[in-house]
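INFO  loader      accepted 1 record
INFO  loader      residues=440
INFO  predictor   begin
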Amino acid sequence: MSNAISSIALVCLTPITDGNELGAMELPSYGIKRIQAAVVADPALADCQLHMIDLMRDDVEGYVETILACEPQLIGISMYVWSTPCMIEVARRIKLRRPDILIVFGGPSARKEVFDLPIYPAPHHVLDALVSSEGEETFTRIARLPEASKQQLESVPGLDVPAISGWYSTGPQVPIACLDNIASPYQLGLMPRNTVAYLETFRGCPMSCRFCEWGATDSATTVFSTEYLIKEMQAYKEWDASSVFLVDAGLNLNAKAFKNLQAAEREVGFLARAKGLWAEIYPTNVRDEHLQFLREVNVGYLGIGLQSIDPAVLKDQDRPFKQERFEESVRRLAEVSYCEIQIIMGLPGDTPEGFQRTLEFARSLPVGVRAYHCLVLPDALLNRSKPEWNIRFNPHNMAMTSCLGWSEADFARMRAYNTEQAQQAGGTAGEFWWFFPPQY
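INFO  predictor   done
INFO  writer      dumping tokens
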């Protein structure tokens, strides 16, 4: 029996700035490719036409016309901070012209709190449902519905559905018990050749920092097996992947996942031959086995989250920190790789003077420093802040404009200060500030 939904459009907006950050390396979108792989691997959807749409530019009318030309019955839209205004407007215009098409949003910014921001139209005029957790199984269940209707969506768990009276949930989604069952876009040959490969060894995060989207995810208990990771890296090799981007919350935040990665690398040896491994690493958990692994592979970049050196600020953000242990770990990591400390300007409870002390401390270490303007992200400060922080932000780009300890004037003054300091250090200024280490 043929499937009721015979045409699907998967939509995303990959910003060119992501690729610019790494020079000439191409960074294709990964989340939407995971959904594509799930659809392609599902035998029940074998006869379904699947259209991938990524214009890589903020072009609302271009997206609308391209999508409608495919005549889809179901549209899946991947939403991130940078693509939110564009994608919401695209969906609104499609709903006006073709209200019969099912529109489902997913991705890190696909949350009720974002759609409820006053700058956007009523959610029920934009979408039919959003997936706020793992999307592979949920989206394929939607694609297998016997009828492409909003009523049928109520049978699919794991969805938030908008209505005139507000949102309602279709019930909790059972987490994926075995991550190896998730189809790989690399093993299916769906990723472009000679681009950066994305490596995922586990999902979730064991920490719950309020400023971070990872902090509200499921606990990091499920991992990809060694056998799965071997197949992944063999696929990277077959498709001439240039470098590898680790998308985990951190290289060393799940002991079992790290051991599986070690074993897979011993079998395949891909990371030792690649142009570089790009990863985040949590400094407090750095052990000898992590340093040994980093010596054996070709590391291009290690990101080290610091955010602030003020214990009270970090405690308020549910972020554990020991400065002595941090400094020791950074110096050890700097011996095996180029590293960058990441700090945040504008955390609630911090001050411009406190941020300057953090910046000075970070720049005193033999690594690069990257400073970010604080964002009010979903699953983070957008819905996990404290009332007394009095958060105000720009809803178009989610940048903090004022909060406890920071006025609008403070932000303007410190942005100018960061720009001046970064340029004097031979770094760059823009969406973030990049300070190179003295020996760079």
